[in-house]
Specification:
The longest helix has 32 residues. This protein is α/β, with parallel strands linked by helices. It has 18 helices and eleven strands. Strand 9, helix 15 and strand 10 form a beta-alpha-beta unit.
Amino acid sequence: MNHLPNDSVDLLVQTLRFAQNPKNIAELRQNFLSPQTDLDALFVAAKRRQLTTVMIENLSAKGIVHPAPSGSTASSSLRGQFRHFADSHAARRAALTKQLADLAGILNTAGITPLMLKGAATLVTGEPSWREQRDIDFAIRPDQVALTKAVLKQNGFVQWIEIDTNHHHLSPLKRPDDPVFVEPHARINGSRSEHLLPDKMLWDASVEVDFASHRVRLLRPDHFLLQGLTHHHFQNRGGVLGVINIKGLLEFSDAIRRLEGGEVARLRDFLGGSHQLAEAVELWCAAGQLLLGAHIPEDLLPSQAAYRRAEAIWAGTPRTPGFVFNSNYLHFTGSSSDAALTKGFERLRSQIKTSEQRFRLIFYTIWPFKKARQMLLKSLFRSRDRQLSAGIMLFDEERIMPPPIQVDPRTLP
């Protein structure tokens, strides 16, 4: 196991807060510019969660650090590095938007109007512009699955990785020159959340819009908000593990502040028919207000019990240094045998159990190896260590984490 830089999640959350009063901004400025502050840890925390762009935007909006002008050559300064991140993100969003437009054109030609999900929907609407993503998710109707596969393969898409046939999305596909792979969803939600948001309801309420001279569909605003929440809280077991995904919470808080009066009332009425979903929304509203200063409509204000639960979850969030466990048989290539995976996870579990530190596990793998993730979770759950299991972060560390930023304190404003 190799030590990673600290994860400064508390300072990250402080930078992500919505409207703040002058006292809050002064405190953030003092914390951010303090000689004791580990800025590298802050950038590591942001990059791990795909929140670097919004962190930079917020620091600029609050008047703490302004990016250098576009095209600036002062790349060694903090302002220059901010500009580099901002320019890189804008270029990537532009490339993904073009890829999405090409995809929509291919599907439209075959009579398919895709329903854009998650980050893909923000490429269509343009909001929030800071949204970072690893792939393009879209749904097709169940009777269009075979046609979608055939059309994409005819247009140069190749299967990136094979996943189980009963999964809610098909195997990821990619063209060699495209920035990211695409994930066609045969079902909008996975097996742990589809009972809360039935596909038929989501499809029937979705709206068709024009995008780059092509036709796509978008979820209704309140359904978009709920689909994101259920993905993190139910499908990814956040509610079971007692964790709240910070990126998901920021997107939820952003989406809820965009709801108009009639949409808020519609959301409230819908939640009245689902106690399980209503409880999750209340918890996330409490966490959004507590951690991010989110504006919560009066009709959705949480109870004191929800605030206490959100506080307890945040207090239990791991803040210790991370570790990377990496070995030949745990660094997946897609051909690892079940026996090798089992051996590797058993070794991992024994090393974790003998560690005296609580830590967050950063696991090297290429997303989304479902079998690998399942085996890791099963192995860790056998240890009956809830705190350990709740600290797992599963994503492609190599793909989304560039080298830690290097900051010379003398270049600070």
